[in-house]
Amino acid sequence: MLREGHRLFGTDGIRGVANSALTPEFALALGRASGELLDFGPVVVGRDTRRSGEMLSTALQAGFHAVGIDTLDAGVLPSPAIAHATAHSGAMMGVVISASHNPAPDNGIKLLGAAGFKLTDADEDRVEARLRRGAPWRTPVGPGVGSRFVHADAAEAYIQSVVQAADHTLQGMEFVLDTANGAAFKTAPEIFRRLKASVDVLAADPDGTNINDGVGATHPEALARSARGRVGFAFDGDADRLIAIDENGIPANGDVVMAILARHMKERNVLANNLVVTTVMANLGFHKAMRELGIDVISTAVGDRYVLESMKEHGAVLGGEQSGHMIFLDTSTTGDGTLSAVKLADVMASTGKELRELRAEVITEFPQILRNVRVVDASGLAGADLLWAAVADVERELGDNGRVLVRASGTEPVVRVMVEAAEKSVALSKTEELIAVVRAAFA
Description:
CATH architecture of the largest domain: 3-Layer(aba) Sandwich
Number of helices: 14
CATH class of the largest domain: Alpha Beta
Distance between the termini: 24 Å
Strand order of the largest sheet: 1-5-4-2-3-6
Strand content: 15-25%
Structural class: alpha/beta
Radius of gyration: 22 Å
Shape: globular
């Protein structure tokens, strides 16, 4: 995992193939390095449903224990629930073991500060520097060695916090939940049942290898087939993102959901500073909708950590990404798919309107094509001069009726190519043109 000249932490922690790149030996060392930066504990540790999660959790906790830091093991829980537990248990740090929307063989480690927010880049760099320095480590003995404790109350405390965030019950409303065989397979259905909704649940039978496998937020077509006129909510493996399905079976991504929520919050005078924070991936239709509503928009680099930083800087309470990460800073410290679903259902309950009505009233999306081009190493993207010349040519052709975004993924070895245009056929053709140039540039 530690390569010279390569930063260990990506935009969402550390990712790799479990027991290959991401080994228990590495997790042990990371626990030691992270623990040595703390004067005392405890540290909350939780994971998603991947088979490798227990292995990495055990090794990581052993690393903390070896340098004298106790751990609170929260078991299988959504990322936002682990953040909530960190912020409300007196912990000095939190750790999420998950690769989010990635396939089951992958896993990841994400570090949280005491308040439940992701560590800053500077704090991650401190952890990485200590990890690279290696032995000798702090080696307490006897009663100084850390120990593992079960955090038995973490799930219930999180469930209660999300239920309390709703202004209305959902009695008489029917939803279908797709939990991606992931971390929300118990908590999300329980939250909606406590709000008195009628709930059908899909992909809630994790076996360690089926997380995100053709289901969840990255495969909303599975939910669309099952919803049959009902509103559906699809989460990803760690349940920090949401993709909704409206009554017509059409996906509603983060842009759509945030536009609906922003309008509702503005009408209720709870949209702090009349502001929404999003990323450069946000659809042109989202920006048009916000202008018509008189709502200000700030765009950041892709990654919910950058959205969060901007929200804190500018005093926003609503922000998120097209991919479905949505942050409600007056309620939570991180993206939360279940909370987003509850907030959206709450708007439906408040207005008496169907989701398809709400989206039609608020936003008309521009056709947008996004493709991932797998490469060996995307770090050379900045120097791909022929590619950037091609991007400039396409941008000139589209003018004000479209845009282009080409970027390296922060979590996978891929280059993402996105084109928006007034017509889908144009967006598709220009995307294919640029994909060909990317492949040539990285051949």
